[in-house]
Amino acid sequence: MPRLQIDMLPVGDADAFLLEVQLDGPPEVILIDGGKDWEDGDRVLRQLDAYYGRRVDHLVLSHIDVDHARGLLHVIENLKPDQIGQAWVHDLSKHGLGVRQAVRMARKLAGEAESTAVRTVATHLADSVQSNQRLIQALKAKGVSVREAFADGENRIGPLEVLGPTESFFESCVRFYGDIRMLSSMVEQGIAFRRRKTAGMGPAAPDAVLAAAIDDPETEKQASLILLLEYEGDKYLFAGDAGRQAFAACPELEKARKLHWLKVPNHGSKHNLNPDLLDLFKPALAYVSASGVGINPHPDLVTALKNRGAVIYATSRSGNVWHRRGDVPSRTGYETRRPM
Question: In order of start, what are the domains of the chain with their CATH numbers?
């Protein structure tokens, strides 16, 4: 009998999703990201033990970001080799980039920076590239096969279809790591992006605010995997931290029209989804992984989703959010959560 369950774990402004999907064959367990630290990874392990038989058929890193990868390292270190089936991680070294050189450049940029903001962003980039490589090394040390998924290449991760990125779009994003001038430019753009205010909007309608927001310049987010699951005629989209450029580069984004379930990208930022994308996706359910500290999930995005009929759940409001369909047993202590 078909079954589906999804756990969106409360890991702050990071991601950790556990899925169990059973369609025609045996059930498959998929872990997408593992949070930002040891504690988040431990939370994933406890959930695996309690409800998923301490096994992962497909271990997925959505994109090169330490806040998504570091918890996965802890998960890998604490699972036996036969408890991980297949890993899906983009490997910079396969795309013309020297990983050590990229880390050195980012750390050099951070060390020479006069601005705290530059140091913070450059250090985060260095940590992200380094964590990505450590993740690949840890998987290979366990004897786990590591593969890459692209919309125009190996485009299935178990029951999930890869809508993005294409390999060429991925490479256009990560080439910034191999050139100090490009890297410096991206860091500066990222800082300007964080400081930018939407000027002159006044009490604008939510769609106007989203339309005026600029796209996120941080290319590691744009390189996120965009994954589509179809379950009994309904569509589920896992969007990582993908932005408008990333969605525009998806060759078959039309497949994501009229979603049942959307993992809202980038913790509910107003910069990732514009009105046209919201009209395309028009999700019945929208799930947001966010700490609730600061502005995310952004109130204008929340209102724009509600205006299109979405029911919204967020870890910042509800903690762990569990979605189930089909022959999935109930859980002691779990109750129906109120949406936002």
Answer: 3-326 (3.60.15.10)
